[in-house]
């Protein structure tokens, strides 16, 4: 391999020169090449196919695929006038370069492969919170742009907060009682229509937080019907006894909100502010109160401010039939003890809980939550103090079967990385089939308990060979002013409490092309819910270590063998060139 020279100027007078050799194939790659090439200096298409089947477990690959790979590489070689190589097969270096082709050796399947014919309650669904906000929860602008970006990333649940506009003759989307600037509902709906299915064919669910008078609810129904037309799904039965399947509602828009009558009742029977504050402060009482989000709790004077006078209330008791007819997933009435809401009898419904509520409820009612989510839907949302649009640990919802773990997609940080990692599953379509154990009931009506320590189901071996691409994507002095970077890789497991683990490689100093060649083992009790978090950092002796890229991968979908793992920036955008060569094995 060649050598690259880097010069760094110090104090304007002195140069530091670093000569760095480009990466050679690791010893494991050499050994595998020799094995499948039968000790010969080149690997034929038939031998490559055997490697893909036996080592990579790519059982769907055909002889046609391996022949096409070899032909493409040989064609590229001819263009480079490299006549000394074997004309019938791949050299070791060509095989090594082939391993970096993400289309063939990426870590995950790129196609939808889960069963999509079960009711929606059987899936984790990629869910946004306050999807219209561009920044923080108090003063940022409302816009359709974050909605568009979320849909382009595969988010399937979009939340809109609906309020009367200043003249009370139209509808704004805005975070109520804050300084956020509104955006029109029509603009949001039109953008949803345009971008709903650019990433995924599977249904988009719009959850409406409704603060409207009956006449404006009727206007929402008219507007929604006109914008979406045949894309809009209407429930087949009233009441809804079973949710549709993702496959049956491809390219359709579904609406989820409280029916008009239930909306008014939730205002009339709301809990006092003092009760809410005691809950938010962490009361350990098992008599937990179900809560809606802050904007959805209005007192009597608020109802008058919203224009719900006595005449409006009377008409609202009748309900807005056009509006109610749109609702596929009915939101339950958020009043009373949480135990009452977890009743699995009756019609299908959606219950919204804050992250704090869910954590407290799971202490006493964990089994009830799992049973509830086998037929119904739970939506979890960030606590009200997350005004900076931060997020929480999504596993607090997934462990109990919560389908809609709602996140602030405009934020960033590890929690959002976990969310993005989970929904890289199933071809990135935004729907991930829940593990079978979350849908099962034992003979004694027992269900999965994530806090119970279970035996190890499998052991994941992760080997980190090397990385490259930083010298292409970053400036020469991005990490260190006077020398090449000092990279190390963190490898972590995120999942049920028993499976959590954190490990890291040694630091490779002064090298844009680090070679670690280190292996780690992770025993896993619930691999179906586990994520592999990979993060590269650049060591800094005097300041916080610099960020060099990250990704999260669902362990249940990891492909075995040598894999090229592309890394992303802190917001989850894929870096152009940065990637790691790794190996995954399950025992």
TrEMBL record:
The keyword Transmembrane does not apply. Coiled coil: none annotated. It is a peripheral membrane protein. PROSITE patterns: C2 (PS50004), PIPLC_X_DOMAIN (PS50007), PIPLC_Y_DOMAIN (PS50008). Its main location: membrane. It is an enzyme of class 3 (hydrolase). Its EC number is 3.1.4.11. Keywords: Cell membrane, Hydrolase, Lipid degradation, Lipid metabolism, Membrane, Transducer. SMART domains: C2 (SM00239), PLCXc (SM00148), PLCYc (SM00149). SUPFAM superfamilies: C2 domain (Calcium/lipid-binding domain, CaLB) (SSF49562), EF-hand (SSF47473), PLC-like phosphodiesterases (SSF51695). Residues 352-438 form the PI-PLC Y-box domain. One of its GO terms (biological process) is response to stress. Residues 264-320 are annotated as: Disordered. Residues 264-279 have a biased composition (Basic and acidic residues). GO terms for cellular component: plasma membrane. Its cofactor is Ca(2+). One of its GO terms (molecular function) is phosphatidylinositol-4,5-bisphosphate phospholipase C activity. It is found in: Cell membrane. PANTHER family: PHOSPHOINOSITIDE PHOSPHOLIPASE C 6, PHOSPHOINOSITIDE-SPECIFIC PHOSPHOLIPASE C FAMILY PROTEIN. This is Phosphoinositide phospholipase C. It comes from Canavalia gladiata (Sword bean). The lineage of its organism: Eukaryota, Viridiplantae, Streptophyta, Embryophyta, Tracheophyta.
């Amino acid at each position: 391999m060649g050598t690259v020279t880097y010069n760094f100027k110090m104090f304007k007078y002195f140069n530091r020169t670093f000569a760095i050799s480009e990466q050679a194939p690791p010893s494991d790659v050499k050994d595998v090449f020799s094995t499948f090439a039968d000790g010969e200096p080149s690997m034929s298409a038939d031998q490559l196919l055997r490697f893909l089947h036996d080592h990579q477990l790519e059982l769907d690959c055909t002889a046609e695929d391996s022949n096409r790979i070899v032909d493409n590489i040989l064609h590229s070689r001819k263009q480079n006038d490299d006549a000394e190589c074997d004309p019938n097969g791949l050299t070791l270096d060509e095989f090594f370069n082939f391993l970096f082709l993400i289309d063939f050796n990426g870590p995950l399947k790129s196609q939808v492969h889960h069963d999509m014919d079960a009711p929606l309650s059987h899936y984790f669904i990629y869910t946004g919170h306050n999807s219209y906000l561009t920044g923080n929860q108090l003063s940022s602008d409302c816009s359709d742009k974050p909605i568009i970006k979320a849909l382009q990333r595969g988010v399937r649940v979009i939340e809109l907060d609906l309020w009367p506009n200043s003249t009370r003759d139209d509808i704004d989307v805005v975070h109520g009682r804050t300084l956020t600037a509104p955006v029109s509902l029509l603009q949001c709906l039109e953008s949803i229509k345009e971008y709903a299915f650019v990433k995924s064919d599977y249904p988009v669910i719009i959850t409406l937080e409704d603060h409207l008078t009956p006449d404006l609810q009727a206007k929402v129904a008219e507007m929604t019907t006109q914008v979406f037309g045949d894309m809009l799904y209407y429930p087949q039965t009233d009441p809804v006894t079973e949710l549709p399947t993702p496959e049956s509602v491809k390219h359709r828009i579904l609406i989820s909100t409280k029916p008009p009558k239930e909306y008014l009742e939730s205002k009339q029977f709301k809990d006092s502010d003092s009760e809410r504050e005691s809950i938010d402060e962490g009361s350990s009482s098992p008599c937990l109160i179900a809560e809606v989000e802050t904007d959805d709790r209005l007192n009597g004077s608020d109802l008058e401010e919203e224009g719900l006078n006595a005449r409006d209330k009377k008409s609202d008791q009748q309900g807005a039939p056009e509006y109610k007819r749109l609702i596929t997933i009915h939101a339950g009435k958020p009043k009373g003890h949480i135990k009452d809401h977890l009743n699995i009898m009756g019609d299908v419904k959606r219950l919204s809980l804050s992250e704090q509520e869910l954590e407290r409820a799971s202490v006493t009612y964990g089994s009830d939550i799992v049973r509830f989510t086998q037929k119904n839907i739970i939506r979890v949302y960030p606590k009200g103090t997350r005004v900076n649009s931060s997020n929480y640990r999504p596993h607090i919802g997934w462990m109990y079967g919560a389908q809609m773990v709602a996140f602030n997609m405009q934020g960033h940080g590890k929690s959002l990385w976990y969310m993005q990692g989970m929904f890289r599953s199933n071809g990135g379509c935004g729907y991930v089939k829940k593990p079978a154990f979350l849908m099962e009931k034992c003979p004694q009506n027992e269900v999965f308990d994530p806090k119970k320590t279970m035996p190890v189901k499998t052991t994941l071996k992760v080997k980190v060979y090397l990385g490259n691409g930083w010298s292409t994507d970053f400036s020469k002095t991005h990490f260190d002013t006077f020398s090449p970077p000092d990279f190390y890789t963190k490898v972590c497991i995120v999942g049920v409490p028993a499976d959590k683990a954190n490990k890291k490689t040694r630091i490779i100093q002064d090298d844009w092309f680090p070679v670690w060649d280190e292996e780690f083992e992770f025993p896993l009790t619930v691999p179906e819910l586990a994520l592999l978090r990979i993060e590269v950092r650049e060591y800094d002796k005097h300041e916080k270590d610099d960020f060099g890229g990250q990704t999260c991968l669902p362990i249940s979908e990891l492909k075995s063998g040598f894999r090229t793992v592309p890394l992303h920036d802190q917001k989850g955008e894929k870096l152009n060139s940065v990637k790691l060569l790794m190996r995954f094995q399950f025992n």
